[in-house]
Design goal:
It is built from 10 helices and no strands.
Length: about 250
């Protein structure tokens, strides 16, 4: 790895985790496309690096927030169980599917998120519990094969009546559980290499610092303009993934 590449991925992870610290999501949606499209990483490498770094970021955010305990997951335990089961199926697909197909799936998911978050047409989910099984299934599949398992959960919870802080804590708690099972399954599946460990080691402290800056800003700065800018960035990333896969 060159010094130039190391500096670039440090900047990418610092910015993407800052967005995660501010909004509760963002690392996977930005870092995976940048690594896989613009920096020459294999798609599988990009997914594993980002998911692994996110494990440390999620732990740090939950410790800082002082709200995580195992009981906080009881309300979404059905979602978690189905997410964990189908994550394994997703990992199998990650090994078997062509990278172009994975990029199209990932890009489409990112754009769907942008449309949902940016559209003035909103739908309110009153009994979100009845959607836990299908959302858990899709979340697990997307987490295993694309590193984007949080998107179905994000869509479900953001259209429910959860308060902002509860939404962020629940989302990050779910991400943590999915990160842990992802790291375990990637390890068992033999995905980790010395190069992947090198990348994780280079960026992890900067990623944590970026997330903490994002958490600090989220409590002190209005996020209306920030959210608009974030959606533009995410749309560009999703479109780039699809374009790269097709052409």
């Amino acid at each position: 790895m060159t010094l130039e590449l190391a500096l670039i991925i440090i900047v990418v992870f610092t910015i993407s985790t800052l967005l995660k610290g501010w909004s509760g999501f963002g690392t996977n949606l930005i870092a995976i496309p940048v690594l896989a499209i613009y920096l020459g990483y294999e798609y599988v490498e990009a997914v594993i690096i980002v998911v692994s770094v996110n494990l440390f970021v999620n732990i740090t955010m939950l410790v800082e927030n002082k709200k995580f305990n195992i009981k906080s997951l009881e309300n979404i335990k059905v979602l978690v169980i189905f997410g964990l089961i189908f994550h394994i199926v997703g990992v199998i697909l990650l090994k078997g599917l062509d990278a172009h197909i994975l990029k199209i799936i990932a890009g489409s998911l990112i754009i769907l998120t942008v449309i949902n978050k940016g559209s003035k047409i909103k739908f309110k989910i009153k009994n979100k519990e009845k959607y836990y099984i299908p959302v858990g299934i899709f979340s697990g599949l997307f987490n295993g094969m694309a590193g984007l398992g949080g998107l179905p959960v994000l869509l479900l919870l953001s259209n429910s009546d959860m308060e902002k802080e509860d939404f962020k804590t629940t989302l990050v708690s779910y991400f943590l559980i999915m990160n842990i099972i992802a790291v375990i399954t990637y390890s068992v599946g033999g995905f980790y290499t010395s190069y992947i460990f090198l990348n994780i080691g280079i960026v992890v402290l900067f990623a944590i610092a970026g997330a903490m800056i994002g958490v600090y800003l989220s409590r002190r700065v209005s996020d209306k303009g920030f959210q608009t800018g974030l959606l533009f960035v995410l749309f560009f990333m999703g479109a780039s993934m699809i374009y790269n896969a097709l052409f």
